[in-house]
Design brief:
10-stranded antiparallel sheet, about 280 residues, globular, 9-stranded antiparallel sheet, disordered C terminus, mainly beta
Amino acid sequence: MKKHLSFLIMIVAFCTAHASIGFSSYRGVWSSDSAEAVITDSVCIFYFQADSTMQAILEIPSAGFSSKTVFAKDGTVTSCSGEEPLAISETNGVLDICGYSLKKVEEINIITPYEMAQCNSKDDVGKCLQQWRLGAGYGISDDMIYCEINTNRHMFVYMINPAMVYIRAAATRNNNSGTLFFQNIRMMKNRNTGEYTMHIAPDNLNVSRNDLEIDNTKFQPNSCTFSPDGGIYWSLISFEPDLILLNGCGETYQVKRPSIADDMEYIEYVPYSADDKLFDMRYHR
């Protein structure tokens, strides 16, 4: 579900907070039972539970941009520019961000842009689903804020537009039959459907730290499968060298092999371990 952020980046007028810190020292995915953060060299998305609210902050220091969104139990959603840069420090492997203590659950390495592999056989599908989505990018205009960061094990979104506020963190896992997707943090207000959701998994640290286990019997190309624990199976429909189609629960997801783009942060592809059953051919259907 990779979206290529090629539209013009234009910082909106109200975004006046200018962060002075550099993020590279804190790069990675960090988590606790009440908060989670993804940090690249240039972008941080911080999700957290505060009293009866769910909140998220998107900060892009190089753009002088910061946005804070608050979901309240009464259905109210407020968004505004961040008043101060995020307060971040690390001591003995524990990240302190705005008074929350988080543990690192995934390393992130930023690399130079490169040409990604083609999908030339079904044996390439799992690798390409993982690799093609990797990266961090954002776009900001007068009526939209959008940031997407996908790592080897997680997928993050911060999106605000007139029709919808959609902010989430998810664990993910791929193999040659498709993608397993598990949202552990979801903040959604959809003015078209009336949906209002604010949720963080009660065991968020374990969900974000542990690898998802795929049940291949749940991959069904003609349907989208929901597992009892909340996982969603996006099943392979077809593949081409530069395009993979997945059944995405009511729509077909197009995962495209990206062209080299200088306006994206490239995250290093880290293969799953060689003895991982998710890539053991004995388990493929």
